[in-house]
Model the fold of this input.
Amino acid sequence: MNIIKFRKFWLTLSVTMVIVSIPLIILFRLPMGIDFTGGTLIEIKPKDQISVTDLRNRVGETTEKTVQVQQSGDNQFILRVNISDNDQSKAFENKIKEKLPDSEIVRRENIGTTVSASTTTRAIYGLVLASILIIMYLAYAFRQVPRSVSSWTFGTIAILTLIHDLSSTFAIYCILGRILGYELDINALVAALTILGFSVHDTIVVFDRIRENIIKNPQKSFFQNANSSVNQTFARSLNTSLTAILVLVSMLILGGSTIKPFILILALGIGIGTYSSIFIAAPSLAMWFEYRNKNNKRVKIQ
Done:
């Protein structure tokens, strides 16, 4: 399987996916959870069986604001509303008790706008810091590669690959989430960081094999070593990711509704991350090598 030979095709496809993902995220933008916007969360357990539609109609009469209703268990529901003021939050809870007098209040949370703004800022800082640390680590880890391949290139390409993974993952998640009634909350940030780590781990496996083959087989061209490395790690990457995805799918089917958005993002991210480590990371490294050495007659394009 000569993946490197068709590197231009794979990279063109990947760039197209990123370009398409951005407008899809905007078009199918999911509502932000109270972790980012501030608001009130109440989890209730009515005594009598009630459907989500019926509950949504009842609680919708208690406030002019939109109340998001999500089933969290057997006849157990989470209500989210954009109310940050303590007095208004208590008034909303009292109205819920009036509408559903036999309901048990399982959980209540009230997140202010200051806390939510801090959460958003820290989320951005966390992603940026993680990206910088990944570049620095990979530059150090691959410092012994030949001079023809800069160690900083490995880290930079890994981050560019992550941009593809995260944008594609959240584009698909926004489409499915809009259909399933999901929202973006703090769990989405946790999933993004988890995808970041998993994808980089898979990419490092491919890069490390490329480094080994370059040192072990200096008589071969860079493209031959890169393609051999991808073929040598293909089965391992596929089997590792497939095992994780199967576990996530079982959790997605059998797990509670509160964790399903988180599990869905993880499953999508791991699948796309596996694709990118094979079809984007190594071909990108080959393209960079080709560009850097295009005037060097000793480089043979395979």
